[in-house]
Amino acid sequence: MSTAYQQLLERFRELHRFAHLEAICHWDQSTMMPSGSNEARSEALAELALMQHRRLTAPEVGDWIAQADGEVLAPLEQANLREMKRHWQQAIALPDDLVEAQSLAGARCEHAWREQRRSNDWRGFSGNLREVVRLCREEADVRSAARGGGRYDSLLDLYEPGMTRARLDALFAEIGGWLPDLCQRVIERQSSDTCLSPVGPFPTDAQRKLGLEVMSALGFDFDRGRLDVSVHPFCGGAPEDVRITTRYSEDDFSGSLMGVIHETGHGCYEQNLPPGWLGQPAGEARSMGVHESQSLLFEMQLARHPAFLHWIAPRLLDAFGHEGQSQALAPDNLQKLFTRVQPGLIRVDADEVTYPFHIILRYEIECGLIEGELEVEDIPELWNEKMEAWLGLSTRGNYRDGCMQDIHWTDGSFGYFPTYTLGAIYAAQLFAALEREIEGLEQHIRDGNFVALTCWLREKIWLQGSLLETDELLRQATGDSPDPDWLRRHLERRYLAVD
Amino acid sequence: MSTAYQQLLERFRELHRFAHLEAICHWDQSTMMPSGSNEARSEALAELALMQHRRLTAPEVGDWIAQADGEVLAPLEQANLREMKRHWQQAIALPDDLVEAQSLAGARCEHAWREQRRSNDWRGFSGNLREVVRLCREEADVRSAARGGGRYDSLLDLYEPGMTRARLDALFAEIGGWLPDLCQRVIERQSSDTCLSPVGPFPTDAQRKLGLEVMSALGFDFDRGRLDVSVHPFCGGAPEDVRITTRYSEDDFSGSLMGVIHETGHGCYEQNLPPGWLGQPAGEARSMGVHESQSLLFEMQLARHPAFLHWIAPRLLDAFGHEGQSQALAPDNLQKLFTRVQPGLIRVDADEVTYPFHIILRYEIECGLIEGELEVEDIPELWNEKMEAWLGLSTRGNYRDGCMQDIHWTDGSFGYFPTYTLGAIYAAQLFAALEREIEGLEQHIRDGNFVALTCWLREKIWLQGSLLETDELLRQATGDSPDPDWLRRHLERRYLAVD
């Protein structure tokens, strides 16, 4: 006779297997699928999503959870039950008609946005977005009534469990206190730098080969994963079969190279989740913020580290070098190229110094939208005000490169943006701990030996899955709760040579 | 309020969507998946199969079928209900513990066979096969009790609905009456032929490019399909997203070229199933035999036709030609190459003249096994006897190239083999009708214009889905019930110049 907890475990194992198939078919949709198959694929995936929802919200699951609360459980089992409850509550909270209305409104808004962004059509877009926001407010009402806490908090919890608006307000206020001055000083300091641009073309084949070499060096396991091409790079698939993607431009190798390193961070996390717990909720990655911390640790902390650029320089020369290229591909010049700070309109193109501005701006606007303090019509004016104040750039009349640049809001993913900057904070904090704890880390990196680094991450983060909550995970790994001061120290050291 | 029929339709639409995801993940497993992911993928697919089985055999489905029997239905709806009943009865017939035992025994036997075949280990293999046969006999008992008819018939029905052992006995007896003599005469006639072998290497890229060109010419829609590489070529995916595969050898272009044409036949059938009926059982391909008839019509009837070889010869020269290659790639020589008849041990390498021998041999043995007239231990001796009698070849002691060469029996797919020869009969019959009905067909083919041919197949076969039963489908397309005499006439004309 199975206990309620064991029955829950079996149901979540079933859901894990379905998630595997879902992820592979999503990956296929972005990488392999011919375009004419899109409708059938989308319908098939929607059917699977509905079935997953049904299996998660079936009446017996609620009963099992109630019973399991009274069972004697070991710590791992407690963590599983905690995560099961969270998934179940999130799934059961919303009435079916709201889920369906959101799915329709989101699909309509996202679909139209692709063309509207191109034609800078704010009027058309805002009509659709208004409906998405209206439904997300309803979602936040229902969710916050079910779980307690604030309305925006209830959305945040979908991506970053444990995080609240109150804590984010404090974190972002702190960053807002020092970042403008720091940014100004970096720009002044870099104004006299001269920096050579490597000259293409950089053949796709050579870029791919280099990407694979770097992935291997970083420990990506090609026996349980692949690298392919998609329009929008991502890390997908399942922990047992990780699929990362990139895109190549023959004019510029750095976008794909840094992108591959970023996705490899996500991929290594997934591949090294505790093997014995796969299929259990405690065996999943901790949160979006922690996930992003692994990709940013690889892409920003590690791959822009002078020692890493020293290691990769000869490899770049080997891949792309021709007469007269050697200076542009020398470590010093690479360092300047990869740490160039330049305010810009586009979030995804931003450097690590100006990036938090893009996030805080979106955070402030989306909080206002969800709490009902702002309306969709207010967005362009506010966007422009904040861009002018923080980055000295105007987006007046330029919706395309302003408030219409991101996909996130089109399908109602409010509460997601903060995880980018949380990831940057966690990454800085983790890398500082790595530097303290691994003797000779810099030399290891310079030698292209990433074993000590990845073993440390594996032990402290990857193998922890979702056993601990995020704060405790960071505390056990670094001795400190999440603290943006680690990001400040990192930026000051790298960009202002403050040690 | 929905009728029972409408509820059935919605349930089968759901199953169609799951089948889409299942097929894409199976395709991925054979083409893209890294080997270390196999266990997780297999578990995920098994979970999906279980869920599909549960949804098909849920109590309400039986109720709906009983009710729908009393509803007033149009002809398409009647065809749907007939196919729904068939799928449901097949699924509900077996007790769960038999399904599970078969799945385990099949997986064990197939897995071990891969190594046992290599090492010619009949002793090891026969132990596993005995259990597979035992369970298949049990399956045939249960199925025939549920549906009436013979035991072997009940397995045949899984692949070729409407076909029976009595009819197959008659068909194969007829073929056995004329084929030995015909085969003998062909071999004598060809004994004085000289035939030049094109000399490789044939670069993979050039083979792939040619394959894609031929697929396009034959009407394959790349907006809803792909060509990739796998160890064992197949046509998979879904009607809305057809995935065909091939494998390349740089020593020989003909294997991949003819393989691609074969799979394109399967693929065009799937892509041209009635678009308005997709998701309905009557919108599915008719049977394995009809499916095989489309691939064999493309590969054997069309692609070995002198007019086709005349069309493809300059394309081969273009792809692979070099100094001194032009004679080997001339139409006359290609004709000799592609119609060479040579008795051999291996079914998948057999020419179209000797192929039926391989099938009849397997058919006779598997009938005996299922009906309990033969035991597994009797197979090698019988196999050898028949091979010696029909093809003059011994397999004594050579299990690897004898009764251990095929995968089909390892997982219990008894009843499948006959569909290959049924496909060859249907293909010959359909091509004869095409020749009668399309004026100037030969010239069209010689010009690489396959539009009239594919339009005819589309109208007569592809767009019919499973509306009609196989005999009626053939009768409406060709004016005749399935008749092996069409195969005889085709072989005599092509191989003995009898007109």
From TrEMBL, chains A, B:
Keywords: Carboxypeptidase, Hydrolase, Metal-binding, Metalloprotease, Protease, Zinc. It catalyses: Release of a C-terminal amino acid with broad specificity, except for -Pro. GO terms for molecular function: metallocarboxypeptidase activity; zinc ion binding. CDD domains: M32_Taq. InterPro entries: Peptidase_M32_Taq (IPR001333). The keyword Hydrolase applies. It comes from Marinobacterium nitratireducens. Zn(2+) binds at residues 262, 266, 292. Its cofactor is Zn(2+). Binds 1 zinc ion per subunit. Broad specificity carboxypetidase that releases amino acids sequentially from the C-terminus, including neutral, aromatic, polar and basic residues. Its EC number is 3.4.17.19. SUPFAM superfamilies: Metalloproteases ('zincins'), catalytic domain. Belongs to the peptidase M32 family. It is an enzyme of class 3 (hydrolase). The active site is at residue 263. This is Metal-dependent carboxypeptidase. GO terms for biological process: proteolysis. PANTHER family: CARBOXYPEPTIDASE 1, METAL-DEPENDENT CARBOXYPEPTIDASE.
